[in-house]
Description:
19% strand; alpha+beta
Amino acid sequence: xxxxxxxxQTSKAGNVRIDAWLWxxxxxxxxxxxxxxxxxxxxxxxxxxxxxxxxxxxxxxIRVRQPGxxxxxxxxxxxxxxxxxxxxxxxxxxxxxxxPAAPALGLPQRDRGAGRPTKKDRRDMQxxxxx
Length: 131
């Protein structure tokens, strides 16, 4: 077998589908999950909803809506095959803002390893909950 010329390899690497790229950088666990997200409108390139077959180019801004938040990724390198997490992190820049901390409910926190609450502790917790 002969290997492909360098120009053919470059043109093949220059044409990466959005669903394959999202799967390769580990934004989704499976490629079919990435495809489903594209069909559902959860993926946008430069603000426009895309189909799973749309090609990605370096410099694109990709918004991926995931449960509870939205990730904003900038394409730095094109890859079509899934690689390790370390290598995948070099293929994009994450511009996602910090997620706000979950609001505290005002419930008392027990020290780790303190054992079960006593009857008095349980009554105090019920009083705080309003029960």
